[in-house]
Amino acid sequence: MLPYSVELEALRRIPPRVFGILMSLEPAVAAGAGLAVLGQPMGVVQWAGIGCVVAASVGATRTAR
Q1: How does pLDDT run across 24-42, given as a tens digit for each residue?
Q2: Which residues, other chains included, contact 24 with Cβ-Cβ below 8 Å and sequence gap of 6+?
Q3: 13/7 Cα distance (integer angstroms)
Q4: Distance between alpha carbon 32 and the CA centroid of its chain, in Å?
């Protein structure tokens, strides 16, 4: 409940473009936290997948009118 409430409050306060980019970074942050806190390494394919998600979101945001 708390993360959802914080996301809704952030959506009200920051531009939607910025919010979209921040949401696309969540998988990368979660993967980094999993590596740092839990010691769960990810392979090159998984990191490439996360990179594709982030790049697609940034590209969609930059080309939106």
Answers
A1: 888 888 898 999 999 999 9
A2: 53, 54, 56, 57, 58
A3: 10
A4: 11
Taking the CA atoms of the chain, what radius of gyration do you get in angstroms? 14
**pTM of the entire predicted model:** 0.66
Q: Are 17 and 61 in contact (CB under 8 A)?
A: yes
| The CA-based dihedral angle spanning residues 3, 8, 11, 56, taken in that order and rounded to the nearest 10 degrees | 60
CB atoms within 10 A of CB 50: 20
The closest alpha carbon to 11, from 29, 23, 1, 2, belongs to 23
What is the reported pLDDT for 24? Answer: 80
